Amino acid sequence: MTTIDPLALSCPVPIPEGARVTLGHGSGGQLSGALMRDVLAPCLAQASPGGPLNDAAVLDLGGTQVAFTTDSFVVSPVVFPGGDIAELAVNGTINDLAMMGAQPAGLSLAFVIEEGLTLEDLGALTASAARAAAKAGTSIVTGDTKVVGRGAADQLFVNTAGVGVVPAGVQLGADRARPGDVILLSGPIGLHGVAIMSVREGLEFEAEIASDTQPLNRLVAAMLAVEPGIKVLRDPTRGGLASALNEIAETSRVGMVLDDAAVPIPDAVRGACEMLGLDPYHVANEGKLVAVVPADSADRVLDAMRALPEGEGAVRIGAVVADHPGMVTAKTLVGSERIVDMLVGEQLPRIC
Amino acid sequence: MTTIDPLALSCPVPIPEGARVTLGHGSGGQLSGALMRDVLAPCLAQASPGGPLNDAAVLDLGGTQVAFTTDSFVVSPVVFPGGDIAELAVNGTINDLAMMGAQPAGLSLAFVIEEGLTLEDLGALTASAARAAAKAGTSIVTGDTKVVGRGAADQLFVNTAGVGVVPAGVQLGADRARPGDVILLSGPIGLHGVAIMSVREGLEFEAEIASDTQPLNRLVAAMLAVEPGIKVLRDPTRGGLASALNEIAETSRVGMVLDDAAVPIPDAVRGACEMLGLDPYHVANEGKLVAVVPADSADRVLDAMRALPEGEGAVRIGAVVADHPGMVTAKTLVGSERIVDMLVGEQLPRIC
């Protein structure tokens, strides 16, 4: 690892000498947030229309509100119980658009391939991406392929970006939660993270755990149809439910109080987390969303969610409060109260 | 390198057993074309609005024609004479939008970082991306950061995607060249490729060769202002001038005849190519464009190009003909005629 020629480029932000990127910076937790806040955002030196804490930017293009998002995927292994890197990438980008209220209008697909991948595997993953896009009612409209030598990348990295139109009247944002709002969750948490851990760490469970990767755009459309005034949508991916809620609480300067008993955690997820010493609220999900909705429409939104397979396990998990702004707490199963903190450092590298 | 579980995924296209991705598949030449034609396009199994041979897709979003494109960058080294991977990525995406006639409205920036990169280097490259965007009148509006372990990636890979509005009345496409049209080139070729080779192969030249990476959106706006009916624009990146023109000739089912004497090749590029046994027409450029324009407006377009620094070396290099459809030929310096073929295999891996 050589250092970049300091004559050619310089970093405009004071950074401790010798500080290096660690796996924890990719975790979606506190270190990821610090990297964005202390290095990336100041180096970009500009107001970002979408803001670093929304899942997508929204641009006005000729009077049309267009959501635009990107994600790179480095999950290992590239095929895992319940999905693969290409399907995960397509669903992830569709979901980032959906969290801004947009239906996908087209996706890009860019591969960085390690020399030696079989064409059959590349073809199979490409077809998986196309199927995932079609399942969500969209398609891959542009792409790119790069190849690097053996050892310069690990099999395959995938980037997907996407665009979609935000319907008139919909205005979602991590800064819009207000005391009195209700927090909804679309179903059981922790399945993607535990599925990846099970293959990576060789864990065996009584029932097979499969990733929950799935597109959420239809669920979001159904929710907005009954309540266009939903405040915040967020898919709790890297960093899990805890990071997603903490980011919303911090951006909106509100507190949140969860009810641990209400949060659905599959037995296998709970068991794996106990074995590995993890908090299920920190485990990544790839097909779930949390919503902050006005209290008076919460039941209608819940009913709309439960009417679709991707929302059949939807529940109310807590409320937004004026107390302790920027902090998320939970009523525990034994009746006490605890702080729900963001993940610190790295739980499992390359989970998405 | 393990093979993907065949039970989980299958490739819908017949592929020779054991065929693997090689560095040549990333060259932008014939092998890249074959990969797209024989594997990626059939596996995507759908009509692509932009088509695999345009630089960007054009989508109708609420009545606005939006160009949308993506590229991943794996150039090594990440800082090179005349530029760096982040600036290259930003310019590359701006140029892909420009080749569809669009001004950039917003870019995404996604990093795959090898654990251990210094935060100072990461900050410097991020700032370089922001500067490049600002120089072209746009900004980074959304992004993503992933970290992989040491040895799982080589320092840093960058993906940029972008969106931009295609002005009403502009309709550019690789299928629109017609016999009688004139072929223009915005300036000297080969500088990016030779700059990368010079650092990678340790070549010394009398004068330092710097990459030509630069944004072309203002040049394109000036060209379209004098002739909205320009037929094709293409930036001859990987695979060089030869690949760009061959793709246009093939897609439009026309022939092309170039005049070798008219194509500006800097002495250092010619010298490096002679030393390394390369055809300068195959060497990558990152700040040049070729244009296919109606004959009667060619002089006006040339004048508009020459009025800007990024087009000051613009020249007429040939014409579109009805003969030998799909083939590009050149009148050589000694008066004979030769076939200008696409690059076969790999010239230099990781040039962009």
Automatic annotation (TrEMBL), chains A, B:
<protein>
    <submittedName>
        <fullName>Hydrogenase expression/formation protein HypE</fullName>
    </submittedName>
</protein>
<dbReference type="InterPro" id="IPR011854">
    <property type="entry name" value="HypE"/>
</dbReference>
<dbReference type="Pfam" id="PF00586">
    <property type="entry name" value="AIRS"/>
</dbReference>
<dbReference type="Pfam" id="PF02769">
    <property type="entry name" value="AIRS_C"/>
</dbReference>
<feature type="domain" description="PurM-like C-terminal">
    <location>
        <begin position="178"/>
        <end position="324"/>
    </location>
</feature>
<dbReference type="InterPro" id="IPR036921">
    <property type="entry name" value="PurM-like_N_sf"/>
</dbReference>
<dbReference type="InterPro" id="IPR036676">
    <property type="entry name" value="PurM-like_C_sf"/>
</dbReference>
<feature type="domain" description="PurM-like N-terminal">
    <location>
        <begin position="54"/>
        <end position="166"/>
    </location>
</feature>
<dbReference type="InterPro" id="IPR016188">
    <property type="entry name" value="PurM-like_N"/>
</dbReference>
<comment type="similarity">
    <text>Belongs to the HypE family.</text>
</comment>
<dbReference type="InterPro" id="IPR010918">
    <property type="entry name" value="PurM-like_C_dom"/>
</dbReference>
